[in-house]
Recover the amino acids of this structure.
């Protein structure tokens, strides 16, 4: 198996993803999709899994077809899970749950390790996949993903992001007409 290229802060990939996101949020969905697609091909299948996860996560939002959106969201989840597996195997980092890692030895406490940053993606990835399934009239699959979203959001620190995800999970549950893994 070929090794993936490691993410480097100076490579600009995350900056370019951010620029495409800004285009999308400004209303230029097609140009955002075109730039993300070109970057996806540039990164390639052996590119850094963190980059591939982030790119696929945002590429999903630029799709016009619900099935295409689901396909990109599933790619993002696959890359996230692959990133967690690679980092555990490559660094010996043990984690109690997907996306959770100890800080690198000798690292600064405030430095964000990509694995820790990725942890915040899991609830959003599962929520997006649940919404995709709901749009495709697959409520059982949507509820299963909501269970995963709720479990992973509970692993996040309290804050605005966590609460926003919880609220979005609650809204989708209401839309689907049932609770998924709600805890008192």
């Amino acid at each position: 198996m070929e090794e993936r290229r490691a993410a480097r802060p100076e490579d600009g990939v995350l900056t370019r993803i951010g620029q495409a996101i800004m285009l999308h949020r400004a209303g230029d969905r097609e140009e955002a999709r075109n730039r993300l697609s070109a970057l996806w091909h540039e990164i390639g299948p052996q590119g850094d899994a963190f980059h591939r996860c982030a790119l696929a996560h945002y590429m999903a939002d630029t799709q016009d077809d619900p099935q295409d959106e689901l396909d990109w969201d599933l790619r993002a989840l696959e890359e996230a899970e692959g990133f967690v597996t690679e980092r555990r195997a490559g660094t010996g980092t043990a984690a109690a749950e997907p996306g959770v890692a100890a800080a690198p030895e000798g690292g600064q406490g405030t430095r964000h390790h990509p694995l820790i940053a990725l942890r915040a993606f899991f609830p959003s990835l599962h929520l997006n996949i649940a919404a995709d399934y709901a749009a495709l009239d697959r409520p059982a699959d949507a509820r299963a993903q909501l269970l995963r979203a709720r479990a992973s959001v509970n692993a996040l620190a309290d804050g605005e992001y966590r609460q926003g995800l919880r609220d979005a999970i609650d809204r989708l549950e209401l839309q689907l007409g049932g609770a998924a893994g709600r805890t008192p």
